[in-house]
Design a protein that fits this description.
Number of domains: 6
Distance between the termini: 45 Å
Shape: elongated
Strand content: over 45%
CATH superfamily of the largest domain: Galactose-binding lectin
Structural class: mainly beta
CATH architecture of the largest domain: Sandwich
Radius of gyration: 37 Å
């Protein structure tokens, strides 16, 4: 409804989400997870972040805010924000800063000093537009000094409070969208828009055949814009081959083929070099043939790992470029240090054809040049859905009134042809949190045949399965997904983990062995997406001997720990690990902790390690763990009807939901749906009635109330040209069970005869035939209906 708006309002928000793409750290304590930061600036709980290591290494964690409650047309008058954080008091963090960001742009910050207690810092965010608020986040960053130490440092994020003051004035209109067509949805159901602005409605469904879309009762079906629902993926490619142009001293470049940035070589030396005063180029080729020709390239990144051999001569060259065929595309980057480093090339915008036209990375070297030990070319692409799935949008421009968008069946429903020599029975299927084949609705099947229904749930919990009101849960055929894991000693490890059959824990076997490591590879073979929960007991010398859990599909080093005066650290990068149990919070001979991974279907692995330095032992001197798998997708089921000789109403409900039964029955017509179905509260229901006779009287009751006047009549023609008549009845916003009864009877025929000046009804008329009176079934054919002596009703 049109509403005049003149508002000055304020909203107070706390973080609502965690932005992993703008966060980087070594690990986060499972006992103090990122969700602890979803609180205000006075919180006493916190997220506990282990910092990245290395000279000038940055560690940062970002949280987002949900600002959708602020109207898109609002003017932002002011913003205030405070964030409670702490940098560990160790000297290994040089500086800390808390900032507000809009996307990648910093807007307001406060310097954070090292402390043993947390402080709520006030940020100065400046001015913002409403659109900038859609990407607002608070980011807490810690930066190490110039030392390359790997000693532990930590950040603590407690929470943030964001207050936004805004104003809005003008006329606001409402746009509502509803669908009475099974399988077709419109979103959002309700939205508000200020005068002069636009609003867009999205329509999803397998097809819009026989569907009409109306805006305030005007057919706008032809104005819809169709989009393919896209799928796609990410391809990380290593070089497939190489060629050399010019003179290169040495052949070490050969060994880089197949290396990736994620697994760089540790080679050194000056075998990458051209002649003095000249340059040479090694071209590394890539194969992107598996990307479909109809794909759209969303983004590309090329990363190379290596270093400059020397900085003593101005002829030193070690630069990289990307090429499509002979055309250079993208920015040139160079190694700048004799220390190992990763450089990133931005290749720019490419088509699929360019990506398949001899794609190469050229590594140009001169004099002593440099060394490239690995290259990864990452392509993110999308393609139209292979199933031909689409969605449609309708945009209302320059709104000046309320709009009601409706989606309805177009024309009469044409029942499928049926062989008159057989009987047919309706099979009605309805489901919640599941898809079925045949689809939900009513199909009519021939007597004596069999029908198998496939049920694919989106929620793993089976709540209800009925056939004509009878529980059929035990008759469903299905299987638990084939999700398994194995535990074996990792390749190259001296020690592994043995299963303790009495406790169910896998136990490290290197207890008491200095400078050693037990490393197990837990390999998952999953048919469905799963949560893998590691329950573990970590016992050893605090800060020196401890367990570690690798990141998913990341190989960890198989040697022991590197010790220093203040503790020990992994010999490989701490970024390889999801969790490092070095602090006292993880050390106990009996206390259990958990760590959970969310793993997609397929084959994946997690490396688990118990590392020891060269010093003494403590406690049980071991890491014990066991694994539990929880499928995030339910089992698929089938249900078979054999020798069908009656109608069936099949209902399948999954998940903890509230639902209502809608039951339809009737005589003298085919009903779609026919029988009992199930709906969630707030959903809509529609029934189509196809009378056996186009001249039948139709009466419908809903929970005993006559609703015949609410029927919508539609007339059309069948494939043979016969007239088809439908009556549609719908219920919106369901909040109770409904029983719908349909009666289709013959049209009574009444003839009126004029006797004198008075018309009198004649229910029966007889005609004398061959001396006998015969009752006539068609009264209108007896008389001339244009005469003064007879008329029909």
């Amino acid at each position: 409804m049109a509403t005049p708006i003149n508002v000055n309002d304020s909203i107070e928000l706390v973080p609502s989400g965690y932005d992993s793409s703008n966060s980087s750290y070594s690990s986060i304590s499972s006992s103090y997870p990122v969700t602890n930061g979803y609180t205000n600036a006075s919180s006493t709980s916190y997220a506990y972040i282990t910092c990245n290591t290395g000279s000038r290494a940055k560690t940062y964690i970002s949280y987002t805010f949900n600002t959708s409650a602020i109207p898109s047309e609002a003017t932002i008058d002011s913003i205030s924000c405070s964030a409670k954080v702490r940098v560990s008091s160790t000297s290994y963090i040089s500086t800390g800063v808390t900032q507000l960001y809009s996307g990648s742009t910093a807007k307001g910050s406060a310097t954070t000093t090292r402390s043993t207690s947390a402080t709520a810092y006030t940020l100065t965010p400046g001015t913002w537009t409403r659109s900038e608020l859609d990407n607002i986040q608070v980011r807490f960053t810690g930066t190490r000094g110039t030392s390359s130490t790997t000693r532990a440092a930590y950040l603590f994020f407690y929470g943030a409070t964001l207050i936004i003051n805004y104003s809005i004035s003008g006329m606001q209109y409402t746009v509502t969208a509803t669908s009475s067509v099974d399988g077709v949805t419109a979103t959002p159901a309700t939205q508000n828009a200020m005068e002069g602005n636009t609003a867009t409605v999205r329509i999803d469904g397998i097809s819009l055949d026989d569907v009409v879309v109306k805006d305030n009762d005007t057919d706008i079906t032809e104005e819809l814009v169709q989009y393919a629902i896209e799928t796609g993926g990410t391809l990380n490619e290593a070089p497939s081959s190489y060629t050399v142009s010019g003179s290169v001293s040495g052949t070490r470049y050969q060994s880089t083929v197949g290396h990736t940035v994620e697994n760089p070589s540790t080679q050194s030396g000056n075998d990458y070099c051209g002649s003095s005063g000249s340059t040479a180029t090694i071209y590394y080729k890539f194969d992107f043939s598996e990307i479909p020709d109809n794909a759209t390239i969303s983004s590309m990144t090329v990363r190379a790992h290596g270093h400059l051999e020397s900085t003593s001569n101005s002829s030193e060259v070690a630069s990289l470029n990307t090429y499509s065929g002979t055309t250079e595309k993208g920015t040139e980057v160079s190694y700048t240090s004799t220390s190992s480093q990763t450089v990133t090339i931005s290749p720019g915008t490419w088509t699929v054809a360019e990506l398949k036209d001899d794609p190469r990375v050229g590594f140009t070297i001169g004099y002593y040049g440099g060394l490239t030990t690995g290259i990864t070319w990452t392509v993110v692409y999308s393609v139209p859905s292979s199933g031909g799935d689409y969605y449609w949008t309708y945009t209302i421009g320059s709104i000046s009134a309320d709009h009601v968008i409706t989606i309805e069946e177009a024309g009469a429903f044409i029942p499928p042809d049926e062989d008159p020599t057989y009987n047919y029975y309706p099979i009605t299927i309805s489901s919640i949190n599941a898809t079925t084949d045949p689809r939900t609705g009513t199909v009519r099947v021939q007597e004596g045949t069999n029908e198998t229904i496939e049920i694919v749930p989106s929620d793993p919990k089976l709540t209800l399965a009925l056939d004509n009101g009878v529980d059929i849960t035990s008759q469903l055929q299905g299987r638990a997904p084939d999700n398994t894991f194995t535990v074996a000693k990792a390749s190259g490890a001296s020690y592994g983990f043995d299963l303790n059959s009495s406790t169910g824990y896998y136990v490290s076997t290197n207890d008491g062995v200095s400078s050693s490591a037990s490393v197990a590879r837990v390999t998952f073979n999953l048919e469905t997406k799963c949560l893998a929960t590691f329950t573990y007991i970590n016992s050893g010398e605090v800060d020196y001997d401890y367990g570690m859990f690798g990141k998913l599909d990341t190989t960890v080093a198989t040697d022991g720990l590197t010790a220093s005066d203040s503790g020990s650290s992994p010999s490989d990068s701490a970024s390889n690990y999801q969790l490092i149990c070095s602090s006292s919070a993880y050390h106990s001979q009996t206390a259990t902790h958990t760590l959970t991974y969310e793993i997609e279907a397929g084959t994946h692995y997690v490396d688990v390690k118990y590392g020891k330095d060269q010093a003494s032992n403590s406690g049980n001197d071991s890491l014990q763990f066991k694994v539990a798998l929880e499928s995030l997708t339910g089992s698929d089921y089938t249900y078979t009807l054999n020798n069908i000789n009656q109608k069936h109403s099949l209902i399948f409900v999954f998940g903890d939901v509230d639902y209502y039964f809608i039951t339809s029955s009737g005589t003298g017509a085919k009903l779609y749906p026919d029988g009992q179905t199930v709906k969630l509260a707030g959903q809509s229901y529609g029934i189509t009635i196809v009378p056996d006779s186009t001249t039948a009287n139709v009466t419908v009751t809903d929970n005993g109330t006559d609703v015949t006047s609410a029927l919508v009549r539609t007339e059309g023609q069948s494939k043979t040209g016969a007239t088809i008549v439908n009556y549609d009845y719908s219920i919106s916003n369901i909040q109770a069970a409904h029983t719908i009864n349909v009666v289709c009877g013959s049209v009574s025929q009444v003839i009126y005869l004029k006797i004198g000046e008075t018309w009198r009804a004649c229910n029966s008329v007889y005609k004398k035939v061959n001396g006998s009176w015969v009752k006539q079934s068609n009264l209108a054919n007896i008389f001339n209906t244009n005469s003064n002596y007879v008329k029909g009703n």
